[in-house]
Design goal:
Elements lengths: L4 H20 L6 H16 L26 H25 L15 E5 L5 H12 L3 E5 L2 H10 L6 E4 L4 E3 L10 E3 L2 H14 L4 E5 L14 E4 L4 H11 L13
Helix pairs in contact: 1-2, 1-3, 2-3
Length: about 260
């Protein structure tokens, strides 16, 4: 499911400003629509893996609703809750989409921390993790888009990432047939790869994938692609050195 972030921000801004305006004017009749709209927007974001910790808003119980004149204190409190929740979600989305701050880290030796992004533990995951640790790098593990958003905020100095693409899904074109099916990474991994490319730059994100046998990866030559085959770590070391990391291949015990 795709989400139009531009429209989503417009809807959130309208929701927040409308609910505040209606609260000030003591016009409470649309609170149910506000609750349903907020929950729909949150559901769209959570379908992409974002903000899983946020819970939908509940409507005011039937017994607490007013029907004769005016609106109950429960309805008024709910409208405040909608306004506050909408503003919080709006700020989170704007932060998620904000461009990275300019960095000069490419011109100096970097710290030993890098992001390591993957969906599931497998042989490639274990191999890459062990290699990074032997190179005396500290992987900051990321498993989903929401966790990536949180950790890029918690570790703003981390400026390089390794993304692992595994054959975790099987898909074929809508007008195709099952015999045309190819393995591919999960959509979460593709989303995370895109976020990191936008934040860190193409030269600071290495994407490692298994030998390409019936495996589909994005067709982008600007990405630092590394096939996980014999000697893959030499290319990774080369890319890390180009990015001014102080790594030494001699620290790998099998060389």
């Amino acid at each position: 499911m795709g989400v139009d972030f531009g429209s989503l921000i417009i809807d959130l801004e309208a929701l927040a400003s409308s609910s505040r305006e209606d609260f000030v004017n003591e016009f409470w009749g649309s609170y149910e629509n506000y609750v349903q709209t907020y929950n729909r927007l949150l559901k769209d974001l959570q379908s992409l893996g974002f903000y899983k910790q946020l819970t939908p808003l509940e409507e005011v119980p039937f017994s607490d609703q007013a029907f004769d004149s005016g609106f109950s204190k429960h309805e008024k409190a709910k409208l405040r809750e909608v306004a506050n929740a909408s503003n919080v979600l709006l700020q989170k989305v704007k932060l998620l989409l904000s461009p990275p701050a300019p960095t000069k880290l490419n011109s100096q030796v970097r710290s030993n921390q890098i992001f390591l992004v993957y969906d599931k533990v497998n042989q490639m995951t274990s191999d890459v993790t062990a290699t990074l640790e032997q190179l005396e790098l500290e992987p900051i593990i990321v498993h989903n888009p929401q966790e990536l958003t949180d950790k890029t905020a918690d570790y703003p100095h981390v400026s390089f990432a390794v993304v692992l693409l595994s054959p975790d899904e099987l898909a074929y074109p809508k007008d195709g047939t099952p015999d045309q099916a190819k393995h591919r990474p999960t959509q979460n991994i593709i989303i995370e790869l895109g976020i990191l490319l936008g934040r860190l730059g193409n030269q600071n994100v290495a994407a490692i994938y298994p030998p390409k046998q019936n495996f589909e990866i994005p067709d982008d030559r600007n990405i630092l692609w590394i096939e996980h085959k014999t000697g893959w770590y030499l290319k990774l070391i080369k890319e890390l050195k180009t990015a001014n990391f102080d790594v030494d291949a001699n620290k790998l015990g099998w060389l």
